[in-house]
Request: fold
Amino acid sequence: MHYPLNTPLGRMGVQTLEEGPVRCVASIPVGGLLNPLTQAPTLAPLAMLVDHVGGLANHYRRGDDEWTVSSELAIELTPHALELALAAPEVPVVATAAPFGPKGTGSLSLSELTHGDQVIGTATVRSFHIHTPGHVVVWPSDSTEGTPPATLKDRMSVEVAETGGRAAVLRQLPDPVINNSIGVVHGGISAAALELVGSAALSDGTGVPWRTASLRVNYLRQFRGGDESRYEARALRTGRSSGVADAQAIGDDGAVALVARLTAYR
Reply:
């Protein structure tokens, strides 16, 4: 399924290839996309793919009067994931998700990420089942002509606020196109932005690239774009071969909406 460009999935180039209660499959392009803070190639869009396909697998388990919202997202990547994506930028990454364990307070899905015939990672998404909100917006089903914006920052509606040293900040601009069906920033967009600032916070000016190994995100409350809405990250450790950064999304009200920890190696 192709999504219109005036939806977050269409803006990010996500395509759903298969969906159902047993298995959901989707893809996303990652070739040629750069971290706006560092101008380095990035796999941050995989967070968008994982949140969509893993959340979709959990969504199929909802009751008639239920909706689902992500509560946790985790991604583990192989050491050569970025190199494979760079070697064949025209090949999208495909995620295959399935329910994992029984439905519960935090229903869990498990995904496998592949690039061509190579497995490059695994991921999990936990979802809360909530009573259907009265303000759910149904995304358009028509196909909008054209292609997504060329740069990742334009696809995600973010702008650089601060970079350098051991801190990095991206502003989340208000843009209804990147909102989910309940009117807040899509969880995949937010998770991808946390990866971007986390990676940038580890940048130490040596020119030796970091490769993201794991990203774990907790969704604490709703997050909306606004004048003060932002993603911030600080490096906790930058060693010779490993680095760890903590990141958070902060809303206009100053409250922390999401938190994440990123681990990277080189």
User: Anything to note?
Assistant: The chain has a mean pLDDT of 92. The helical segments are 8-11, 46-59, 81-87, 152-156, 187-202.
